[in-house]
Amino acid sequence: MAKRDDPATIGLRVQRLRRERGLTQRQLAEPVYTPAYISTLESGRVRPSDDALRHLAGRLGVAFDELATGRPAHLATGLRLRLTEAQRVLASGATEEAARQYAGLLTEAESHGLPDAEYSALLGLGECALDSGDLTTARERFERAERTLADAPLPARVPALRGRAVAHYLAGELRYAVYLLESTLDELNRGGLHDPDALLLLYATVIGPYMDMGAHARAAQAAEFALALAPRAADPALVARMHRSVARTLLAEGRVAEADASLAKAAEMYRQLQIRTELANCHWMRGYVYAQHGDLERAEAELRSAQGMLSAQRAALYSSQVAVELADVLHRRGRSDEAAALLHGVLGDLSSERGAVHAAAAHRLLGRIAEAARDTETAEEHYVRALSLLERAGAAGDLADLCRLLGDLLRRTGRVEAALDAYRTGLGHRTAPGTTTLGPAPARPPL
């Protein structure tokens, strides 16, 4: 139940409503209470019981909550309906309009002291900021959402925790993103808080940073847990997101057909739910699957579809990340000049604090293109930039491959000692993929 106002505020409210209805204190009091009690209540000298408030609300023709808190009847219900509409607008790709609606709802929820609605509005604003690539604002919104429900059970705060982890992940802070997700999973499982939606959301989210860090075994285990939890989840959009994430682990295991089938399930669910941004991400992931399998024509078509949808939604960061993967496909199809132009066009949107892994991938590909053109100096510059980005992010798998490219380049130009240093750096990250930067695995769910 919402917190009641103080006795003086309630007393003034009762007095105002009584006079508006032309009732005397005796008429309001009968048959249970006395006029003297109403007089004492209206002066704020007594704290009315719930029974007294229910009697007065009935006589005054208002809802109990409205009399106790001053909130208009059905306010919370109306806010929930409008939050659902804002969520639909965001799903359609109209990020700016959704942000405007969420901001208005947040102000209204704050003014009426409705923490649940305030939390939902902050989550929506955080998601809008993620879509637009404003990672600092996204983190601030999610952190504020966590504080809003600080006293609530952990499962209720999981969406905000997940949002904050995604913001750190997109900023290239892979280790911290994994720490947030794993510590939350550990707390849920050890504490017996086995909420299927909360666990599924966390396991589906942690797969991406695991894969980028080279922790393939943990990614596969997270996918296994997610698949087992899916039948218990109540949110179909969450199940669709899980299928999209799991496809990456299936692909890493060489199970291409299963990965494609998983993405097809996700895409169909997103079409039914009319979630356009996530549908774009499905095209993106299918393009990645086709590229890894060597079907470059279909990969290009899927990635162009994803980029077109994301650009139309002004999802600048995601659109730039797709462009990097599209450039790789174009290069592999013999269109290196087109690939290089595309990469130079999006590098301004990527940095060590914003899409670090894809920024490194862009520099790596530009280095390979420069090497093919026998411009070893430019190639080395790009490789060194990529190395710095990947070391900061802790992306072990990509870092090892880059060190091999840099080492080969240095060896060919006669700098053997520098080449050996590059190879050693790569081997150090390949020694035990995913274990050099991660602690013990979190507690398992009771499956």
UniProtKB/TrEMBL annotation:
What is the top-level taxon of the source organism? Bacteria
Give all residue intervals belonging to the HTH cro/C1-type domain. Answer: 14-67
Keywords, in A-Z order: Coiled coil
Task: State if Coiled coil is listed as a keyword.
Answer: yes
Q: Which residues form a coiled coil?
A: 256-316
- Entry's SUPFAM superfamilies? lambda repressor-like DNA-binding domains, TPR-like
Q: Which GO terms describe its molecular function?
A: DNA binding
| Tagged with keyword Coiled coil | yes
Put simply, this protein is called Regulatory protein
